[in-house]
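Meet the record:
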Amino acid sequence: MKYDLEHPVVASIGTEKYKCTVEWRHGKFIADEPESSGGKDKGPDPYTLLLSSLGTCTLATLRMYIDRKGWDVPKIAVSVNMYHEVRDGKTVTVIDRDLNFLSPVTDEQRERMVQIAKVCPISKILEGEIQVRTFAYSDNDESQKHSYTNDDITVVWKPELCRHAARCATQLPTVFNPAVKPWVNMDGATSQEIREQVARCPTGALSIAK
C-alpha cells in the first residue's frame, strides 16, 4: 500500500469555534463553518472544500485534454453544488456539475469534454467505493515509542502511527526490514541516507530524535 500524497494533509482545531487550520505540502489555509452553524465563515466549510475538490480536478483534467488536442478554448468555468434526498429509505447525495465554456466550442467538442469531465480522478473517487479508516492516538503516549541509534542519530518509531505504507522497507531495505528483529538496522546506511528516508515517511511514524 502506498499513499497518494507524500505528506498527509493535517488539520487541527483549537477552542475557537469552528476555525480549523489545514496544512498541506506548501503552506496552510483556514477552514471554518458558516455563521448559521456557529462559526465565523473565515474560510471554506467542509462541503465547500469537497465540491471545490471536484471542481478544480474537473478543470485541470479538461485543461490537460484541451491542450493535448490543441483546441482554442481559453477559459472554462464550472459550478458545483449538491443536495440530499431519501430514496427507498436510504439517503442519496446528488452532485450537479455545470460546465461553462466561455468561448465557442463545437457540439462534438462539448460532448467530448463532458465525457472527459466524468472521468477526472476526483469524479472516479466519488463514484467508486470509498472506505474511510479512522485511527486515534495521543502525543503523550510515550510507551509506544521505540528508539534506534547509531551513536550519531536516533530514529524514533511510533507503532500507533504506522500504516505500513512500506515506503521505508522498499526504498531503504538495508535499514528497514520488518522480517527481522530489531526491524531497524542503524548500521545499514549512512546517517544522511537514514535521515532522508525517515523524512519520506507519509504518516509521521518515523522521526529523528532532536
